[in-house]
């Protein structure tokens, strides 16, 4: 993969991550559509895509640091108190934690199968058709300190976080 191709995929990832579309699906499909010579079955491609998502996650944590700080504080307060207080930040924090557990288990158990599946532009296209834009649902906040609507910054698709958007 050339530097230009990597930059185009990184830009695509960054632009599509906040919208209810699959940035992963588009990252898999674009090289095929543009007839780039990218071996998506190569383990380095999956590592590259994961790093794109990590970079986006880091950027979002930095941008929404006040929101993340409030969520972490609320979860820690509930752990220290030994009971849930019922605040919006606390509920969102616990939902994020609980939604991450099954994805981690499935990712660990089915790593090779998932890697093979995401290496196929045809399979990614099928997922994009079967999971239409707008099928995501908000998990928490109505708004946040950035002014973005909550559903835009914290979306979870019908399959939890198993299909990163």
Describe the protein's architecture and organization.
It is built from 8 helices and 2 strands, in the order αααααααβαβ. The protein is mainly alpha-helical. The protein has one domain (3-156). A two-stranded antiparallel sheet has the order 1-2. Helix 1 (3-16) packs antiparallel against helix 2, helix 2 crosses helix 7 (121-130) and helix 4 packs across helix 5 (88-109).
Secondary-structure map with pairings?
Elements: H1 3-16, H2 23-33, H3 43-63, H4 65-81, H5 88-109, H6 111-118, H7 121-130, E1 137-138, H8 150-153, E2 155-156
Antiparallel strand pairs: 1-2
Helix pairs in contact: 1-2, 2-7, 4-5
* Strand tally: 2
Question: What is the succession of H and E elements?
Answer: HHHHHHHEHE
| Strand residue percentage | under 5%
Rg computed from alpha carbons, rounded to a whole number of angstroms:
17 Å
Helicity range: 55-70%
Please work out how many helical segments DSSP would assign: 8
Overall structural domain count? 1
Provide the structure class: mainly alpha
Distance between the termini: 23 Å
The major pleated sheet works out as: 2 strands, antiparallel
Average pLDDT confidence is: 74
Oligomer: single chain
Low-confidence stretches: 132-165
Q: What's the arrangement of strands in the largest beta sheet? A: 1-2
Shape: elongated
